[in-house]
Design a protein that fits this description.
By secondary structure, this protein is of the alpha/beta class. It contains 20 helices and 13 strands. It has a domain at 6-88: Gyrase A, domain 2 (2-Layer Sandwich), CATH 3.30.1360.70. The protein is 51% helix and 11% strand. The structure holds arginine. Arginine is lined by residues 118, 121-123, 158, 160, 318, 321, 336, 338.
Length: 576
């Protein structure tokens, strides 16, 4: 893929001109602008620089533009209080389109970083539900994009296999076991056991006490408990892999580093906190009190690392995980795709880990929170009786609904093919609906809009891709032939070419805050620019040079659409 980043290029160019114009530490502040026309850029750094140098912004802008005189690939124009508007010339666009290398590395940064991505991480012993969709899908996109940019990515599926819920489950099974009888190890039964156990835990104090004992027993590796537990975990993890496979998520069993994997580290963590003088006993529990955490009425808020019954809470495991990621994996960056409700928890983890020296100051630990998925009425997504909606059911429904649509659209397609297309479209629609929203806010799950063939949806992008592919079915020999020279004359093709050349910029913009909606918006605009081009500019009936040029433009567009969608974990088909 091409590594051209127009924004970066202009930044370097203008900064250099500013330096020549006498500015010491120039910041060009380039941004894409829709005005006066789409595909323009603007440099906004003159105001601040002029203020610092005590000169007039427009005059400084003029000096900068004078320095750039003779640059034939861009047009510069001073506007407003001292902006510089920048227009890409046809020459620039044509040259870069001709040079566009489909398979060049996209690395936008020279340095390769090791990035741990903590995502998905369901609690085991019950089926994955709709609430797991967000972390799983947006985390997987981060993993794919960072890998695409040549970073070393370590996927970390920090599944919950160790906490209170297992104590309840074991205590419950103990209660219902008839000696000599095998306990069912089917996931559906496990789910039922789990529900009964959690209910008992809430209403029956004796049971709750027993459940807590079982957590400690498990954590101390009592052999009977451990065997039973291992069995549940294996079943649950198999189920997760089934869901990941259906959802085209790149996590494998090898990426699972469960809470239990840190069990032996937990006493060490507490010991080291003690050694650093960070521990305080409070009501029998071992706690870390840091000044920055205050509860109600400014009361100090503890981070509990060992409970009074000797069990270790969620936080202790996360401290061990942070230490492992820092010291063993040697991460430059650790990204936690975890719901917004765990913000305080993760802030405490990062702060305590840092205070204890488990992590190094130059390592970035970052929580990337997200909101909830809601129903059309704005209420949380639950079944009528208040239970969680199973993720696998939602995925199957997506495929079913997509099948109906494909069947209506293209009934002459062989049924087997329709089914395959429906899977790609249905799953793509769900993922795209997720990714095209702002990560940090709640969103409404709406079948009709996500499966629409119009608007900013996966089906629309997938369809645009098939339009291009059908062009090449008519001209198969053109697929691999390089273009010698691009000739772009019509507005629609120029705009499409500009969009194509902005791909790296879209990736970089995504990486700033892992907001996939930026990437979605880019792909959507690319696809709609293509559709406009396709309506307005004939391809196969044109003279050879125009035809070559337009086919090349179409080919590169298809390639970016497909690559971009694959970064979102969404597949394409040749026909739909
Ligand atoms: N299992 C947790 C839950 O379902 C999410 C884990 C997130 N990752 C972490 N390192 N705490 O709430």
């Amino acid at each position: 893929m091409n590594s051209l980043n127009i924004k970066q290029l202009l930044d370097d160019l203008i900064s250099q001109a500013m330096r020549h114009a006498g500015i010491d530490e120039p910041i060009a502040q380039i941004r894409q602008s829709q005005k006066p026309e789409f595909g323009h850029y603007q440099a906004n750094g003159m105001m601040a620089a002029a203020k610092k140098a005590g000169s007039a912004p427009r005059m400084l802008a003029q000096r900068v533009v004078d320095m750039l005189d003779g640059h034939s690939e861009f047009d510069f124009e001073i506007a407003g209080p001292g902006f510089i508007n920048i227009r890409l010339t046809a020459q620039f666009i044509e040259r870069n389109m001709t040079d566009f290398q489909l398979h060049e590395s996209p690395a936008t940064r020279a340095d390769t970083r090791t990035v741990v991505i903590d995502y998905s991480a369901p609690n085991l012993a019950k089926e994955m539900h709709i609430g797991h969709l967000r972390s799983t899908v947006i985390g997987d996109t981060a993993a794919r994009v960072l890998e695409f940019c040549n970073h070393r990515v370590v996927r970390a599926n920090h599944v919950g296999d160790w906490g209170a819920q297992f104590g309840s489950l074991l205590a419950y099974l103990d209660q219902i076991t008839v000696p000599g009888e095998e306990i069912s190890s089917k996931l559906v039964d496990l789910e039922k056991f789990y529900q009964s156990a959690s209910k008992l835990f809430r209403v029956d104090q004796n049971f709750a006490a027993k459940a807590r004992e079982y957590v400690v027993k498990l954590q101390r590796k009592d052999s009977r408990c451990h065997k039973l537990w291992e069995k549940f975990i294996a079943i649950s993890l198999d189920h997760c892999q089934t869901v990941y496979h259906k959802l085209n998520i790149s996590l494998t069993q090898a990426d699972v580093k469960a809470e239990s994997a840190y069990n032996d580290d937990l006493p060490v963590i507490v010991e080291q906190l003690q050694g650093r003088g960070l521990l305080t006993e409070s009501d029998g529990a071992q706690c870390v009190f840091l000044d920055e955490f205050k509860g109600q009425n400014e009361r100090p808020l503890p981070a509990i690392v060992r409970k009074s019954d000797g069990g270790y809470p969620y936080l202790a495991t996360d401290l061990a995980a942070a230490r492992y990621r820092s010291q063993i994996i040697n991460a430059d960056e650790v990204l936690y795709f975890v719901g917004a409700s765990q913000q305080l928890h993760l802030r405490q983890v990062f702060a305590v880990a840092s205070a204890a020296g488990f992590t190094k100051p130059q390592q970035i630990f970052r929580h990337l929170p997200f909101g909830l998925i809601l129903k059309a009425d704005g209420k949380p997504f639950k079944t009528r009786d208040g239970a969680d909606v199973k993720l696998i059911d939602v995925l199957d429904e997506a495929t079913r609904r997509a099948f109906t649509l494909i069947n209506e659209k293209n009934s002459s397609m062989p049924e087997q093919q329709q089914l395959a297309v429906a899977e790609v479209v249905g799953i793509g629609a769900i993922k795209y609906a997720e990714l095209s929203k702002n990560r940090t806010t709640d969103y409404i799950f709406d079948w009709d809009s996500m499966l629409s063939f119009e608007g900013n949806t996966a089906p629309y992008l997938q369809y645009a891709y098939t339009r291009i592919r059908s062009l090449f079915r008519k001209r198969p020999t053109q697929e691999n032939s390089p273009v010698n020279r691009m000739t772009l004359t019509e507005d629609q093709e120029i705009l499409l070419a500009i969009r194509v050349l902005q791909f790296t910029e879209a990736i970089d913009a995504y990486l700033e805050d892992y907001q996939a909606n930026i990437l979605c918006q880019y792909l959507y605009e690319l696809a709609s620019s293509f559709m406009k081009f396709y309506e307005h500019c004939p391809v196969l009936s044109e003279a050879q040079d125009i035809q070559d040029s337009r086919l090349h433009l179409a080919k590169v567009t298809a390639h970016i659409l497909q690559t971009g969608l694959s970064l979102l974990g969404i597949q394409t088909v040749e026909q739909m």
